[in-house]
Design brief:
This protein is mostly helical. The protein has helices at about 20-40, 45-75, 85-105, 110-140, 140-150, 160-180, 185-215, 220-240, 245-279.
Length: about 280
């Protein structure tokens, strides 16, 4: 099979919690189901493997449907502003699973596995870690966001140059929170965000050079993620004059968490794990 999901990504971590006990438990159960799929890939007997895959896909479809319903009720209850867009992502995920189920009997085992793992990686792991994380950030009071914001040792990718650049990104971003009450707030924050934008481009260039030097196989995909982060930050800078202070801080916290913290945790750590596997 030419696609394999990283087992490390299917281990539940406390940093994935969104602060709602029911939803967090459901996410953990989804991770448990996903790990079953990973383990099926190790089976040798094709008939057994086929039966297990069908069982897992059915279980996943049923559980995902109930989970999405519960999650949407939560978003409605807290008046989550991005509910409409989040619902569209849920529909896309359900449709993808329906397609796998519909085509199941006409696909080779390798094709079924590939589609299932792509679903788990692109629409499942990333959805929980990135999109659902936004719900937590929306519910978190601004004072708590300010207090907890900053570099933490857990973000280390065990490369001194890249870690130092990550720390610098956090230091630049942290300055934006300190200038909120200043009379020249918009001007100063825009200046800080432009600095963050410029430094992020430099850091991404260094990181891409490093990946090229070590022949990292996912270099092109990683470059696309970098490009998306730069585009999102650029759009945010342009929207700044129209944002209320409290909305600005929430949106800034979300961007920083998702583009820095989660990118470091999910994508940059893959580079280190790949290097460790090669050595």
């Amino acid at each position: 099979m030419d696609f394999e999901i990283d087992a490390e990504e299917l281990i539940w971590k406390s940093e994935y919690n969104i602060g709602n006990l029911q939803i967090d438990k459901e996410h953990q159960q989804l991770f448990n189901i996903a790990r079953k799929a990973f383990n099926v890939n190790k089976l040798q007997d094709e008939k057994t493997k086929l039966q297990e895959l069908k069982s897992i896909i059915t279980e996943l479809f049923e559980y995902v449907g109930q989970h999405f319903n519960d999650e949407q009720k939560l978003m409605e209850r807290i008046k989550y502003p991005h509910l409409k867009d989040h619902k569209k992502l849920h529909v896309q995920m359900i449709d993808m699973l329906k397609k796998i189920i519909k085509d199941f009997n006409t696909l080779e085992i390798a094709q079924i596995e590939k589609r299932l793992f792509l679903f788990i990686d692109d629409y499942f792991v990333k959805h929980i870690i990135l999109e659902d994380k936004k719900i937590q950030l929306w519910q978190t009071p601004l004072d708590e966001l300010r207090k907890n914001f900053g570099w933490k040792h857990v973000y280390s990718v065990n490369n001194s140059k890249i870690d130092q650049e990550h720390k610098q990104l956090f230091d630049i971003a942290k300055e934006a929170f300190k200038t909120v009450d200043d009379k020249d707030r918009n001007k100063k924050i825009k200046s800080i965000l432009v600095e963050l934008y410029d430094y992020m481009k430099t850091h991404f260039s260094d990181e891409e050079t490093y990946m090229q030097e070590v022949n990292y196989p996912e270099l092109q995909n990683h470059k696309k993620i970098h490009k998306g982060i730069i585009s999102e930050l650029n759009s945010f800078v342009k929207e700044l004059p129209n944002l209320k202070p409290e909305v600005f801080e929430k949106e800034l916290a979300i961007i920083i968490d998702l583009t820095l913290v989660q990118h470091i945790i999910q994508e940059d750590r893959k580079i280190i794990r790949w290097q460790q596997s090669k050595s």
